[in-house]
Amino acid sequence: MIARQITLGLFQVIASGVSTIRQVIFKALIAGALLALLAGCSEDKGDAPLTTVVKLADGGEINLDHLGGQWIILNFWAEWCGPCKVEIPELNELNRHPGVIVLGVDYDGHNGEALTKTIDKMGINFPVLQGEPTRHWKVEIPKVLPTTLLIHDGKVQREMIGAQTKNAILSAIPQ
To answer: Model pTM?
Structure first.
């Protein structure tokens, strides 16, 4: 918007014949400098420090720093995904395994009551994150569901696509 106003102003000055070429050049330089300054002021959320506390669908929070040496099993699911429904009981069971925590992500991005109703309907007993957490681990939203990420020490160690069993995930975790 500011760039358009400056450009329109420059064209008006040129059209009026009042200004000399030097004035036009000077104003163009000022406009360029202003645009450069404005571009530098935009907030780049990708470089902002990451918070290690993430919100859960049940209203609670989980501090990722407090998970210690546990394996985080980050599972992306959706209510309409048949294979997701098949693997939910396996993930529920896996979440009770020592040294492992399963965290779910609703691919459709439901929030609040809509999310908690979906969790209940799906029979999910592991924590589900409120919102989309891919920025925490610098990964992209998966293109296929279900997708399960095995995370250890803050880094994705493996990506598993398709419905998984408890044993398949445990066998993918180095002992």
So the answer is: 0.71
